[in-house]
Amino acid sequence: MRIIVNNSSMRPIYEQIVDQIKSLVLEGSLKPDTVLPSVRSLSADLRISALTVKKAYDALEQEGFVVTVHGKGSYIANINSQLAMEERRKEVELRMEAAIREGRSSGLKDEEIRELFEIIMEDIKSC
């Protein structure tokens, strides 16, 4: 498992770790029951605080992506397809929101953004 953190990013490091592990799970690179690196091991590899890695693992556990067995480690949870679909939907919503914000900040009116969306949907439909 390869995790890359960007120290100059505005996004907190623990969120970067969470996002990357979730992506690996959703794309199938990390299978259920896969053991994650220990908190100490990953913090040493990334040269960050162990508390940051612990915070990321805790967040992943709260979201249902990781199961932690005290004394044994953290494992990828067996994720149901409904949770995976909801995560993908959330990602799409975030990207769409960013595109709308960018369109508005570029001076496009909402109707122009809708028209662009429809045009793009039609173009993709024909592929």
Core attributes:
127 residues; 5 helices; elongated
Q: Which secondary structure elements does this structure contain, and how are they paired or packed?
A:
Layout: H1 13-26, H2 39-46, H3 50-62, E1 66-69, E2 73-76, H4 81-105, H5 110-125
Antiparallel strand pairs: 1-2
Helix pairs in contact: 1-3, 2-3
Number of helices, where a helix is a run of at least 4 consecutive DSSP H or I residues: 5
Shape: elongated
Beta content comes to: 5-15%
Rg, alpha carbons? 18 Å
Counting DSSP E segments of at least 2 residues, the number of strands comes to 2
Biggest β-sheet strands, sense, barrel: 2 strands, antiparallel
Structural class of the secondary elements? mainly alpha
**Segments where pLDDT lies below 50 for 5+ residues?**
none
Strand order across the largest sheet? 1-2
Q: List SSEs in N-to-C order.
A: HHHEEHH
Mean pLDDT: 92
* Ends distance: 34 Å
Describe this structure in words.
By secondary structure, the chain is mainly α. It has helices at residues 13-26, 39-46, 50-62, 81-105, 110-125; strands spanning 66-69, 73-76. Strands 1-2 form a two-stranded antiparallel ribbon. Strand 1 (66-69) and strand 2 (73-76) form a beta hairpin. Helix 1 packs across helix 3. The chain starts with 12 loop residues before the first helix and ends with a helix.
Explain briefly what this protein structure is.
By secondary structure, this protein is mainly alpha-helical. The chain has helices spanning 13-26, 39-46, 50-62, 81-105, 110-125, and strands at residues 66-69, 73-76. The two termini are 34 Å apart.
